[in-house]
Model the fold of this input.
Amino acid sequence: MPSVIIGAGLVCEFTQLACFFTRFLLRCCEENGAKLYENNMLLFWHESCSLAAVFRTFTEEFHMLKLSPLALAVFTALMPLAYAADKPITTASPAATPLDDVTVIATRTERSLNKVPASVSVVKQKDFAQQQANSVADVMKKLPNVDFGGGPRSDGQIPTIRGYQGTDITLLVDGARRNSPEATQLWSPLYLDPFYLKQAEVVRGPSSSLYGSGGNGGVMSFTTLNAKDLLEPDQKAGADAKAGYASGDNSHRYNAKVYGQGEQADFLLGLGYRDFDSIERGDDGVEQQNSGRSNSGLLKLGVEPSKKVRIELSGQTFQGKNYRPNNPQVVTATPQQTHTSQDNTVLRVTTKNDDGEKALDAKVYNNKFHLLNDAAFYPPATNLGSSEYITDTTGVGVQNTSRLQDGKHTLTYGVDAYKDKFTTLSKGVANPVNPDGTSDTSGIFLQDEIELTSKLRITPSVRHDKFETKVSTGTATATKFSHTSPKLAVAYQATPDLTVYGNYGQAYRAPTVWERYRQTITPLPADFSRFVANPDLKPQTDTTFEVGAKYKKEQVFSTDDKVQLRAAAFKSDVKDLIENKVIGTFGTPSVRPIQQYQNVADAEREGIELEGSYERGALRLDVGASRLRVKDKTTGNNLFSPPDKLTTKVSYQLPKNTSVSWAATGVAAQDYDSTVLRRRSGYSTHDLHVGWKPNRKVEVDFGVNNVFDKKYQTYQSTQATAAYEMGRNYMISVSGGF
Done:
């Protein structure tokens, strides 16, 4: 009987969809001069067609739909079958050349980094290896308008894009969302060993038209390695290992991978271990408590029943124990034993067309973050109990890409849905401040990359989301939202070497359970702070206009040089920006804050980003710069915005397979934040690296980070006195394999 009910429900919902598409296509034909081709029942645009009118028509008709996530997923999964009988299109799409860096997240399709109309950065596996990174933050924080505030403890490092953080940015690992824990201002949402990474990508700016709630700042995506990335087509098996030491926290790390492939299957198994001790800050070498160990693992299983289909199962785990302050971002506090785990499982099916380009991409995933502050390890007489914070995310996503009209249209469409479950416990019972709850999100999106001429490309996209939050503890009623997020990008190939672009898009983010319902019900004299619920908190929306240019040319000053430049400027209008505000104080003689999440009615954000490189023979120069300002337009107050940043790196390839590089980071003072406690002094740091690779499989790396032992603190959203960053840090690692 349940299957009959579900089937009947789906029939009704697909009837709605059929009516929706019929109305949409007919209105487009009538209003925009569009044509409907019977052989594939897809919309093609005349040159005179109004894209704005088409999107208005789509939005108006879509608002009339009421579909469940199940119907959306089934519908999108079946859509590609409608074209199975048609002859595959063999015209190549404007993907990247083999020598270009490739990005996927900006358009959900593979595109050359220098052609995509957005501000995007790509970090390769070799960048993490050369830096001898213990966490992704070590490398990612050097990118323009990308930061990891929260101090040197990896537990407290919070990713930030254009000043947005936590639930305001989308984090993806192998295409699966890693949604932030509710305590987004204190604990990192991302535990990921760089040893397993193939590539990391960052797209800056509104991304809700493709990714839904939380795309205000952009998307940070990580792709892990599989066996095919490490083996040549004629190789059957391989293995590699790496051992390293760092003096700044007296840490040792050991990693290993084994991998193999056959005609239709492949596997990869990776294991890692790291131990560490207190972190020495710069200048005076004072130690900051942070001792413990961690284990990590990655398992990838791939099956390819044909050359066009791949099924992949991926499992990742991180398990850590750390004796440190409860708040990992502070200088010092009562230390305690914390247990952190993050487990991620993804089952993914992808298909390719005749040209080897991705068509269908379907996945189901689960990600669980668990933090336990263990009462058994508290010092005597503190009388503190254990506390637990759990975020459990389950999701499904289906998308398909169709290349139509001889490749002049690349249509990407799909659905995804995910459910977040939040649980907090204090001394084994429900937390008296932070309520348990769930968030359900589902959305449908459509994007068309249109080649109008050989030089002009436009990319309109739109997404509609439904969002619901429920509180499991307490009497608050469920809250429901829906939102339609449009975006339009235009790229013009001014010369063979220069691309200029502009994009205009809207992003949104719905309030979380904690932001709406966090409340101190039973105040205690020893409370550090108190909270007031705000059930009327509204979603925030960000409307951004961005312009940029990308330049790539060889043989500029000599026959063996190459120049790459990417620049972007943006301005955003933010409505109902969600901010944590101090609305009062309590306690004597120590005055402590009373906090509440509130909407800033009208805020503005503006900034710039610049990336460039110059290569000539064995010499390479990289540079990056960024600036951001965020202001409350009503009061004129300066809101949270990371300070100006400049990074440079000079690399030189010496004889006998030896390389050397010098990197510098300069950060200006953040002395303009209206929240005075967040202000920080400026600083500069310098890093040295020397690498020796006697053959293809053996490498020795030596490095010194913070060469001049600078004592400094990074700017962050919390108002607590921040921990100092690590001082001079000597590092050495040895890796080898076969």
In short: The CA atoms of residues 185 and 718 lie 6 Å apart. The chain has two domains: 2-66, 102-737. The domain at 102-737 is CATH 2.40.170.20 (Maltoporin; Chain A). Residues 1-15, 17-26, 28-52, 65-99 have pLDDT under 50 and may be disordered.
